[in-house]
Write a structure and sequence with these properties.
- The structure is a single chain.
- With 332 residues, the protein is of the alpha+beta class.
- The longest helix is centred in the C-terminal third of the chain and has 20 residues.
- The relative contact order is 0.13.
- The mean pLDDT is 94.
Length: 332
């Protein structure tokens, strides 16, 4: 999905400029602005959708010089909630119901370790806080906008409580180490101080991909099995799950935390990351942003796509000057 990206200006390897969506014209941007044309429609010009090619190309097809983006309306009323539970399956059922009805705005799931990393700053504090968390917690916000904001939040809260009851989970306004007001503040701001994934041990490897919510327990089991096989502590695994497209799919992250000064553990984390990536791909995890070694994993499973992309590369960057050697363009 391109959302929230809308219109763009692109420069291809040929040196040609190209504007997408409503920005394609007619006229210059200044002319369109004077005419009151909003740069809101990302499709086009005509039936083309070239921005999608560039969006996922990691700089190998073109360079974006400017873009218009979609912004959210700032809520006038908002309440944040947690839904902790020992079983991820219960939270997945809850998530499907909430997403299908488009009831919450912000919504994501964390395991206890990842949540503690987000809430605390020092390693010892994170360890202690992680032990007090539920194995998994959903975090979500309900919002009211310009019209009857308080009433909207109130009826959503009532409806969410009913959905949660059917799913067997219990919403709360506080978990160990954090209340709803503080979590809302964390969601709204850039990460303060040390980046939250570095707080536990100072280093981490991560694996991220797209799948559907119902498959996430299987992927977690697969990664945890590799941790056990390599004697890597389970408490050093962070898990983040972000539903997208109203729950139709989700973004999944695994974080393997390690001390950069511990060469043995760092090597284990790297090995598990590579091995787990291969296993996850074998089980149909979709690496939509195939950085580094993931490129070989992803494109080896779809050689026809790789061949088509090489043809497109020859069209948009015939001299091979853009981000050479990345994705499936080895040596180009």
């Amino acid at each position: 999905m391109t959302d929230p990206l809308l219109c763009t200006e692109l420069v291809f390897g040929t040196g040609d400029f190209f504007r997408t969506g409503a920005a394609a014209g007619p006229g210059s941007l200044e002319d369109m602005s004077k005419a009151g044309i909003g740069l809101k429609n990302p499709m086009g010009p005509s039936a083309t959708d070239i921005v999608r090619i560039v969006q996922g190309a990691q700089g190998t097809m073109g360079i974006v010089t400017w873009a218009s983006v979609k912004l959210e309306v700032l809520p006038r009323e908002r309440k944040c909630f947690f839904a902790p539970h020992a079983r991820l399956e219960r939270l997945i059922d809850f998530t499907y119901q909430v997403m299908r009805r488009k009831m919450a705005d912000e919504f994501f799931l964390l395991n206890g370790t990842a949540l503690a990393c987000m809430l605390a700053d020092e390693p010892r504090e994170i360890r202690e806080l992680a032990k007090r968390q539920a194995p998994f917690s959903a975090v979500y916000c309900l919002a009211g906008y310009n019209f009857l904001p308080a009433k909207r939040v109130a009826y959503l809260e009532e409806d969410m409580a009913e959905v949660a009851q059917h799913a067997g989970v219990k919403p709360t306004r506080e978990v160990p180490g954090c209340n709803a007001k503080r979590m809302a503040s964390l969601i709204d701001q850039p990460c303060r101080g040390n980046y939250w994934k570095l707080r536990l041990q100072g280093g981490f490897y991560e694996i991220f991909f797209l799948t559907t919510l119902d498959k996430t327990p299987h992927y977690i089991e697969l990664v945890e099995r590799l941790l056990r096989a390599n004697d890597f502590p389970r408490e050093d695994l962070g898990i983040y799950i972000q539903p997208i497209q109203h729950g139709r799919s989700c973004h999944v992250e695994f974080h393997l935390y390690f001390d950069p000064d511990d060469a043995d553990k760092a090597q284990k984390a790297r090995y598990i990351t590579l091995d787990a990536s291969k296993e996850l791909a074998n089980h149909k995890a979709f690496f939509s942003r195939p950085y580094g070694p993931w490129a070989d994993i992803a494109y080896a499973r779809c050689p026809e796509t790789a061949e088509i992309l090489k043809e497109l590369k020859n069209i948009f960057d015939p001299n091979g000057i853009l981000n050479r050697g990345k994705l499936c363009f080895k040596g180009v």
